[in-house]
């Protein structure tokens, strides 16, 4: 794999397996959250929205958005 024009060292298979396992556990944990909390996490960490933008997008008070993010 090349990153910024430089070859990246190959990942150790054990490290790759460990990372995949952690990611699976994280996805499983997120799946157990209430949908409103998952939505806030998605908008914050995947869509990259600020908390104020999330509040506007879902038509919820900023305090509610912050509480959902903290709880999640």
Describe the protein in words.
- It is a single chain.
- The chain is mainly alpha-helical.
- It contains 4 helices and 2 strands.
- Strands 1-2 form a two-stranded antiparallel ribbon.
- α2 crosses α4 and α3 crosses α4.
- The radius of gyration is 17 Å and the shape is elongated.
Summarize the structure.
This protein has 72 residues and is mainly alpha-helical. The protein has 4 helices and 2 strands.
Features:
4 helices, 72 residues, mainly alpha
Class inferred from helices and paired strands: mainly alpha
Q: Strand-residue fraction?
A: 5-15%
Q: How many β-strands, per DSSP?
A: 2
Distance between the termini: 34 Å
Structural shape: elongated
Give the number of helices.
4
Q: How confident is the prediction overall: mean pLDDT?
A: 90
pLDDT < 50 stretches: none
Topology:
Elements: E1 2-3, E2 6-7, H1 13-31, H2 35-46, H3 51-58, H4 62-71
Antiparallel strand pairs: 1-2
